[in-house]
Amino acid sequence: MDGHHGVIHLLLTDVVMSGETGKEIAERVSKLRPGIRVLYMSGYPDHPVFDRGGVSRETGFLPKPFSPHVMAQKVREVLDGVKAA
């Protein structure tokens, strides 16, 4: 990412990974790219990171599994700043 000089509009990251959480990655990327939108995905909707890690299912969350259509729709919502119902 350091070598890319163009605009990056969206970070798509998993919530649960080995090493860092998606939230930690999003915080690091946001410092380098202020204003970037973040879309989290996870196959573990009951993972503790949702309660203690500051990741909200209500803002930019995509539960696994998902279809390409659902992913495209959610990406559009996040880029447009649409709040989850």
Model description:
This protein is an alpha/beta fold and 85 residues long. It has a single domain (10-80), classed as Rossmann fold, CATH 3.40.50. It has helices spanning 22-32, 49-52, 68-80; strands at residues 10-14, 37-42, 61-63. Strands 1-2-3 form a three-stranded parallel β-sheet. Helix 1 (22-32) links the parallel strand 1 (10-14) and strand 2.
Compose a concise summary of this entry.
This protein has 85 residues and is an alpha/beta fold.
Question: Which helices and strands appear, and what pairs or packs with what?
Answer:
Elements: E1 10-14, H1 22-32, E2 37-42, H2 49-52, E3 61-63, H3 68-80
Parallel strand pairs: 1-2, 2-3
Total count of domains: 1
Number of helices: 3
- CATH architecture descriptor name: 3-Layer(aba) Sandwich
Give me the CATH fold name: Rossmann fold
CATH classification class: Alpha Beta
Give me the CATH superfamily: Response regulator
- Approximately how much beta-strand content do the residues carry? 15-25%
Order of secondary-structure elements: EHEHEH
